[in-house]
Amino acid sequence: MTTAADFTFTDYKPYDFANRRHIGPSPSEMAAMLAVLGYESLDALIDDTVPPSIRQTEPLAWGPAMTEREALDTMRETANRNRKLVSLIGQGYYGTITPPVIQRNILENPAWYTAYTPYQPEISQGRLEALLNYQTMVCDLTGLDVANASLLDEATAAAEGMAMAERVAKSKATAFFVDENCHPQTIALLKTRAEPLGWTIVIGDPFADLDPAAVFGAIFQYPGTYGHVRDVSGLISNLHVQGAIAVVAADPLALALLKSPGDMGADIAIGCTQRFGVPVGYGGPHAAYMAVKDVYKRSMPGRLVGVSVDSRGNRAYRLSLQTREQHIRREKATSNICTAQVLLAVMASMYAVFHGPQGIKAIAQSVHQKTVRLAMGLEKLGYTVEPDVFFDTITVDVGRLQSVILKSAVAQEVNLRRIGTTKIGISLDERSRPVTLEAVWRAFGGDFQVADFEPGYRLPKSLLRTSEYLTHPIFHMNRAESEMTRYIRRLSDRDLALDRSMIPLGSCTMKLNATAEMLPITWPEFAEIHPFVPVDQAEGYRHMITDLGEKLCTITGYDAISMQPNSGAQGEYAGLLTIRAYHIANGDVHRDVCLIPTSAHGTNPASAQMAGMKVVVVKVSDNGDIDMADFRAKAGQYAANLSCCMITYPSTHGVFEENVREVCEIVHQNGGQVYMDGANMNAMVGLARPGDIGSDVSHLNLHKTFCIPHGGGGPGMGPIGVKAHLAPYLPGHPETDGGDGAVSAAPFGSASILPISWSYCLMMGGEGLTQATKVAILNANYIAARLKGAYEVLYKSARGRVAHECIIDTRPLVDSAGVTVDDVAKRLIDCGFHAPTMSWPVAGTLMIEPTESETKAELDRFCDAMLAIREEARAIEEGRMDRTNNPLKNAPHTVEDLVGEWDRPYSREQACFPPGAFRVDKYWSPVNRVDNVYGDRNLVCTCPPLEDYAEAAE
Ligand SMILES: *Cc1c(COP(=O)(O)O)cnc(C)c1O
């Protein structure tokens, strides 16, 4: 029976949860947490935590927050302002078909896209296998021995190739030769990277202008940007005679038909796997690759997946060698690559699994065949088609007709490439259809049908591929979609991502990546726009980039922003180059000293090194703050040559330092600029602005604070905000302003993931963003309070508060119980958690960052697990548990541990179901503890042999 009360309207608005989407704790949970901390209100906690001297005065005000539906409508309208034509522009970006099974089950699947970088191998076996497949695919296609997974884009990969060549070459020359057939954006990046390091770039025709004795290396594009397919073996041998290194930039699809770079003698191959199923997305993200000869593997930048064994001797994957290169080598690091393009590398590897070698070859052949057909039609019309032999790209000299034909093509809904003032470039791809060819012919004044031509190969016989590729069984599995779906599912099930539990990784801000924010990125009007289309076809993108940029300026207190850098580390590099250019413009060519505290993230000194700066390390005092006396002394000592300082705020120790304004003033007084690393913006948005505190430039990790998912180690976006005086020195790009200093292949970096950050800002509104910051601080302080007594929180403010993260000390357990930070991290896996950031910025500690997204229940589950681990250590301390044979040392436990003999001095129940672990939904680590040393000693970086694949390859 209903009562009258059922017919009265309530105040409850069903969709009024704009802020609750991102904010985990409910109002009552927040009240309970504040009570634990002893505060009446959230604002009282914030007032006690964020120093008044840095608080921003004006709230973030840009109108009310949008609902989910309003935001999606806005995204739809914005998408519709992009004009989706067929782009045959090529130049490194090609149409491709993402197999739907990969789009839905990987790109649109939080089990894949919310995962973290696989530093904890036991909970990352799925993505590590996919990445090993990627490396195997790249090695096979390039004919080289070892490949990494992955680099940011083809142009940065070329720059990394050059830098690596300089390191390993016997030649002592200081010049690098660049094939004029490289893509223009690749040439631009090579110039950017070479200039501060004092290397000369020589651009020319390698067959006419290359003097191998004058260079430490050379790069050739294969096929060239205008289509040439040329054998560079002779040039490579000449380089080798002079102790110089050969880099080949190769299109992996072309390599299905062409002799591999390895077979031509190349030392290094680089390129991009975009056309293996990853949409162009107005420039990115896509995975670039690098493959090298075995002798150079230890000098290769980026991440390398290898095969090792676990404590039972079973096969297990892990990141090998230079896993955390910058953190270990710091200013001596050779590359600053941190976030890479893991999700996209996974997609490309699955594309190869999906198609297999025959499928890839068939796609390559079909692309070539279409291109020959197109050329035949154009020749019939009387045009001269260059070059004689080509794969998928041709260049047509059309003289004064250039603009007319380009315009006529656009009228046929096709974009062609403008080359100089008289030529047109055309690149065909997997998506090109007969109607596409016919439209191009019409644009050139021809009325043909594809059946009018009988194409034959136009590839040089001597360069046809004879070696096999993708021979491993993984590329020969039964590709019924049921099997593909299950393979993808099996791999993701091995991993622990945000769709299962919180990932409390200090500094990495693993927050919610809301579904509504993710939806637009696969809409064709965002995904299928070539980065070099005419501006009027990308109005939606331009509008979004402008509006998001303005919002980020408001949030940070900067005046201008560059969206070009496609990772935080690239942002650092771009920001330092901006500072450098500013000094040079002021005549201060000599200013090259960069002050960096010892606590800085490893990418900071690595980026400074790449920008040609001299790193001077500044001490950190016992309480974790910058040592002001040392800072002042060093700034004074190097005043004449001071370029800048790099500081992180709140500090990497998770504290709002009171003296940050003073730090900025000291640097300015000594003629330097302030670079504030913005990775910790999640503690500041709406409360404090770097620009107000005195900083001149910062990068923002949109894949941390602004909700772009980590993708298992990328993609990311690292735009930089600057004060007005630095704005003229922001990176240019050959395809937009023709300016110098490009740091990414595409003018707006990985533009296609910007809808995520933009919709986050729109759905939160200024008020919601500020609330998120406050709750992030509340959650961190709550964890610190709950763990009190069990673990010491290493750094706190004078008032006893932490910022948005806290570092807990596990070092005392080493002496008292023989328990290492590793043991704690691995035991957390049994409890169903990804470990916090381990041993950074202080060895032997854990840095916990819960973010605002986690509910009190989830925080409590994590704290319960941490407290139980402390009790297990206590049992060891008190002699109730064995020092070597205990649940901490034997963690993680697998299903294998449950069957067969059990002779351990603790129960299976205790082993597998410690506090925190779910019973029904228990996460089972697929391997026991992985042996790191074994993996580095016995380096295997491609898929292991068939026997090991009993399950996967059936
Ligand atoms: C994550 C991080 C970086 C590097 O960002 P990437 O996007 O991984 O290159 C730099 N500094 C700090 C403090 C960070 O936490």
TrEMBL record:
Known function: The glycine cleavage system catalyzes the degradation of glycine. The P protein binds the alpha-amino group of glycine through its pyridoxal phosphate cofactor; CO(2) is released and the remaining methylamine moiety is then transferred to the lipoamide cofactor of the H protein.
NCBIfam families: gcvP (TIGR00461), PRK04366.1 (NF003346)
Source organism per UniProt: Pararhizobium antarcticum
Modified residues (N6-(pyridoxal phosphate)lysine): 704
Gene Ontology molecular function: glycine binding; glycine dehydrogenase (decarboxylating) activity; pyridoxal phosphate binding
GO cellular component: a single term: glycine cleavage complex
GO biological process, one term: glycine decarboxylation via glycine cleavage system
Protein family according to the UniProt entry: Belongs to the GcvP family.
Record's keyword annotation contains Methyltransferase: no
Residues in Glycine cleavage system P-protein N-terminal domain copies: 20-444, 473-732
Primary gene name: gcvP
Domain Glycine dehydrogenase C-terminal: 772-893
Cofactors: pyridoxal 5'-phosphate
Origin superkingdom: Bacteria
Keywords, ordered alphabetically: Oxidoreductase, Pyridoxal phosphate
Catalysed reactions, as listed in the record: N(6)-[(R)-lipoyl]-L-lysyl-[glycine-cleavage complex H protein] + glycine + H(+) = N(6)-[(R)-S(8)-aminomethyldihydrolipoyl]-L-lysyl-[glycine-cleavage complex H protein] + CO2
Name by which UniProt lists this protein: Glycine dehydrogenase (decarboxylating)
Keyword Oxidoreductase assigned: yes
EC number: 1.4.4.2
